[in-house]
Amino acid sequence: MSRPVSRVLTLLELLQAGGVRTVAELADRLGVGERTVRRYVDHLVDLDVPVESVRGRYGGYRLAPGHRMPPLMLTDDEALAVLLGLVAGRRTGITAAAGTAGETAAAKVRRVLPERLRHRLDAVLDSLTFTTAPAGSAAPEAAVLLPIADAVRHHRPVAIRYTGGRGGGGERTVYPYGLVAHAGRWYVTGRDLSAGAERTFRLDRVSGARILPGTFEPPPGPGPAERVLTALATAPYRHAVTVRIQGTAEEIRTRLPPGVAIVTADDGGGDASGSGGPGGDEPWCRVEMRVERLDWVPGVLASLDRPFVVERPDELRGLVADLAGRLLEAARHTPPHG
After folding, report:
1. pLDDT score, position 48
2. Angle 108-113-118 (CA atoms, 0-180°, nearest 5)?
3. Strand spans (E) along 268-327
4. CB neighbours (10 Å) of residue 79?
């Protein structure tokens, strides 16, 4: 690469760092005169890179938002970070790139890399394995994500076209409090003016979004992530489960995280009468869950290895007793002699 072209690209890299760079600063960094800096800027403008001239005492040059992304200058570490971010985002399902956008973006980055760096990055990607299976993709469309994010940032109401889990839907007017990525899905939480209550919406079920006039003030209280996790844990599934478990809230949440259960300290004790239980000096917590099926709950409670009392439903007590009987029967068996 010739020295002038190399310096023009270095100039672009300096401008991409953000802010206004004075002509004197750029000349010093490039090792050229100020007139040459202006000529290099003209080269970038000829390439449709949106460089703005800022007048005044602290004036100079800066990159302006353009109708397309200007060429990027990446260091080795930055290129590795971009490619690994695309791979990890696609693998975990939280990438915001719908369809094949993630693959095409990675291909474009690789295509412009020097051969030496491209081979080194390919070695990393080819030797990388994951301990978990790929998550199902539920990436939101950019036409949905971007206006909702803008509405969140500027406290603007937004109209969305939403399809619920059972197929029903329609247009909703929402005061969006925040965006949350959880377990491979994107959510927006806020107040649904159509229902007059707070709601959580999956972005992959939103088919359109437009910002409306006006502003709103977000309410105090839990942040968006806590609101989404609470909404998931209290979703209207078939069974409402309430269990008292001995242990601190922090200990129990490590096995029953937010989004699965609501864990609160309970001073009433662990037995059915509220008078305590084994190890009565230790704290107890009340755990509430909404589940579609009960068959997996006894195994989870047993895995906690802590005293617990089922408050509801009665059906769960029978399932716990059945599991206990099967475990006792298995413990009595001895392996056959070979």
Report:
1. 80
2. 105
3. 284-291, 308-312
4. 20
Q: Left if phi > 0, otherwise alpha if psi is -120 to 50, otherwise beta: which for 19?
A: left
- Helix, strand, coil proportions of the chain in percent (round to 5)? 40, 20, 40
Cα 13 to chain centroid, rounded:
29
- Cβ 299 vs Cβ 293: under 8 Å: no
- Identify the three-state secondary structure at position 254: coil
- Choose among 195, 188, 190: nearest CA to 175: 190
Residue 338: pLDDT over 60: no
Alpha-carbon torsion 13, 16, 21, 23, what sign? positive
Look up residue 60 and give its amino acid.
G
Report whether 292 contacts 241 (CB < 8 A).
no
Give the 3-state secondary structure of residue 9: helix
CB count, 10 Å around CB of 127?
Answer: 7
* Element at 319 (helix H, strand E): helix 314-332
Decide: 12 and 49 in contact? Cβ < 8 Å. yes
282-320 pLDDT, tens per residue?
899 999 988 888 999 999 999 999 999 999 999 999 999
CB 51 within 8 A of CB 57: no
d(CA 218, CA 191): 9
From CA 270, how far away is CA 24, in angstroms rounded?
A: 74
* pLDDT at 200 exceeding the cut of 80: yes
pTM here?
0.56
Residues 210/175, Cβ–Cβ less than 8 Å: no
CB-CB contact of 140 with 187 (8 Å): no
Find, among 29, 24, 25, 33, the residue nearest to 9 by Cα: 29
**pLDDT, mean of residues 171-187:** 88
Tokens 């069974």, residue? 239
